[in-house]
Amino acid sequence: MRETYMQLAGFAQTWGLVYFVGAFLCVCAYAYWPSKKKSFNEAAQIPLKED
Fold first, then answer.
1. How far apart are CA 21 and CA 6, in angstroms?
2. What's the pLDDT tens digit per position in 9-42?
3. Where along the chain do its domains lie?
């Protein structure tokens, strides 16, 4: 029973790490994608706009 738990825990830790690193890289790629710069700059200026 404990051996099965250890195997499942190792599997979850390894592939969980791979999943979260992949998700992090996707988020970074999205944030730094050149075509997104204009929309991010516009969104950053919203609090500074006067009505």
1. 22
2. 999 999 999 999 999 999 999 999 999 999 999 9
3. 24-51
User: d(Cα 29, Cα 35) in Å, to the nearest integer?
Assistant: 11
Q: How far apart are CA 43 and CA 46, in angstroms?
A: 5
Q: How many residues does the chain have?
A: 51
Backbone angles phi, psi at 32, to 5 degrees: -105, 10
Report which residue type is found at 34: P
pTM of the model: 0.69
Tokens of 22: 């992949």
Residue 51 has pLDDT above 80, yes or no: no
